[in-house]
Every structure is written in C-alpha cells, then in structure tokens.
Design goal:
Layout lengths: L1 E4 L5 H11 L3 E4 L3 E5 L10 E4 L2 H5 L8 E3 L2 H9 L5 E3 L4 H11 L7 E6 L4 H9 L4 E11 L5 H8 L3 E6 L2 H13 L10 E4 L2 H7 L6 E4 L5 H8 L5
Helix pairs in contact: 4-5, 7-8
Length: 231
C-alpha cells in the first residue's frame, strides 16, 4: 500500500526513502514549497538558533555556536559546514531550556533563523529568561497549488492507507486540497499520523480512519508509528 508524505523538501525525499525501506510505496505530496532567503549575521551576537532544516540550509558561514531545534536541523547545519552544533529535542521548549543552560543573557543577543511567520513561541520563551532575540527570515513557505498527479491518482483509486503530517500548516493545506479535489470521503480509508498532538488536533477536521500522534516531535518516531508494511 501507499503512504502519502506531505512534508516539503528538503525532508520529503529523505522520508520517502525511509518509508520505502519499511516496505511501503511512498507518494510525495508536499503541502508547502520552501524558498530560502539569504541573510547576513549582525555583529555582536553570541550564538545562532536554527528553527528547522530549511533554516539551516540558508545559514551563512559562521564560527559562532549553533543551537538547533532538533537532530534533523543539527545534521543539516553540520552538512553545511557549521561548527559547534548542539541539538534540542525537536521543539521550542527544549531548545529554550538548552540555550538557557549553556548561555548567559549578558553575553550578547541571540539570532534566531526561522521561516517567515515562525519563531514567536521560542522568542517569547527566551525573552522571559532575559535574552535579547533577533529574528531573521531564512525561508518563505508558499502553499502547494494542487496535489501532484501521482498522489491524486493513488488517492482516487483508494491505494493510500496512511498519510504523514509534519506541521499544522501542512495539515491544513492538505485538507484544503482534499476538499478541492473531492477526496474527503477517501479519508475514511486513511490513517493520519501526526508529528505532534497539536497537528493531530488540526487533522480532526476531516473523517480519517484514525488519527495518531507521536509522543515527541521526532520524524523517526513518526516512522516507528507507521511501522512495517508487513506488520
């Protein structure tokens, strides 16, 4: 059976490969298209915080300490030659705790590299701990105009048994595309697997066969929840 992958690149292809190794047929249907935005680092900052893999891809070269929201964004930063990368556990709360344990507010402001419209929660958590936070837009996300033809065909023919969701915004966009393509009834045949309880709550707007969420915002945990096609 097929698994719908709603994650945008750069992570969609990686997830597709992992899904295929578990015996499923991956079908790419990115809900968002990410476009990097180049930016420069202002003087005087003591460290850089990276909110996603897409933000890591847009980072300029630097020798400053890097704090990444999770293992995926940390790996992306390392692949782009950024040193001293430390990873939190995949969410704003654990990243704020990590930064507060390693840095002092008096040492200078922090730069937070995020997508347009993101980062407010982390900024608030850090400012509450006395840090000055400068946000920089590292990428913009635009809505996918339609479901790709292979995904549309697989959904219409009832071949999709599970769908993976990685953000509330992606979930909302996919549900909009389902409505537009007349696929709402097909949801009753599909298990919706979400990367967080917040995403799972968003998905309740459609009649999925089942909705499950991971205990932590870790893509590996989402794949574990999917399991093997032979199970």
């Amino acid at each position: 059976m097929h698994v719908l992958i709603t994650r945008p690149e750069p992570g969609a292809s990686e997830t597709a490969l992992a899904v295929a190794t578990r015996g499923w047929t991956p079908i790419l249907a990115p809900a968002l298209v990410l476009e990097p935005v180049r930016f420069t680092l202002p003087p005087g900052i003591q460290a850089v915080l990276i909110g996603s893999r897409a933000a890591a891809r847009a980072m300029p070269a630097t020798t400053l300490p890097i704090f990444a929201v999770g293992q995926g964004s940390a790996a992306e930063a390392i692949a782009h030659g950024l040193p001293e990368v430390q990873a939190a556990q995949g969410d704003a709360e654990t990243l704020a705790v990590l930064v507060a344990a390693r840095l002092e507010p008096s040492a200078g402001p922090l730069l937070l590299a995020v997508g347009a419209g993101y980062g407010a929660a982390l900024t608030a958590l850090l400012r509450a701990r006395g840090f000055r936070v400068l946000r920089r837009i590292a990428y913009r996300a635009t809505l996918a105009p339609a479901l790709p033809e292979p995904a549309l065909s697989a959904l219409q023919s009832g071949q999709v048994s599970a769908a993976l969701f990685f953000s509330p915004r992606s979930a909302i966009r996919i549900m909009e595309l389902f409505h537009g393509a007349g696929l709402v009834e097909r949801c009753t045949e599909i298990d919706a697997l979400a990367l967080s309880p917040r995403i799972a709550a968003t998905l309740r707007a459609l009649p999925w066969r089942g909705i499950r969420s991971t205990p932590r915002p870790d893509p590996a945990a989402l794949l574990d929840m999917l399991g093997s096609a032979q199970e």
